[in-house]
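Homework help board

Subject: predicted structure for assignment chain

Our instructor gave us this sequence and asked us to write out the predicted structure in token form, then describe one feature. I got the tokens but I'm not sure how to describe them. Can anyone check?
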Amino acid sequence: SQRMIKLFNDLKGKEMKNFPAPPFSKFLNGRIMHAERGKVEIEFELRPEFANPTGLLHGGMQCALMDDTIGVMTTTLGYQGFLITIDFHVDYLSKVKVDEKVKVMAKMVREGRNIVHAVAEIYDLNGKLIATSNSNLLKTGFTPDFVKNVDKLEDSD
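My token output:
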């Protein structure tokens, strides 16, 4: 929705832990760098707790970063209810150390009546592609608490 896009662009570059966001998004603590309908870019600092035993970004964390970024992107679509991931496919293409930053870009590819198909990609800050994902998300009627908190933020303006 336009209201979420405006909020994301107003908060550009700020840590997500300070947003009205789900706890896991706050834990990942990305910084939204760009938002438009059906497309977002989030930058993440890769902390030590994101590492696999070799000091590289853990594969599960790569999934989490892409899935969460896709989730943020779906809030720009303007649906009343929350979307939930019903499948997720990842291709791991390269590696990145946890003391670096990455950007994750997510975009909507297709909107169906009940299902949204989206893709996401992780890049290091030199532009090297680290991983890609494809996801299908189911539209629901559920409105999570963090969305209600966004509504409260707007009401106080």
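Reply (TA_rk): Your tokens look well-formed. For the description, you could write something like this. The mean pLDDT is 91. That's the kind of observation they're looking for.
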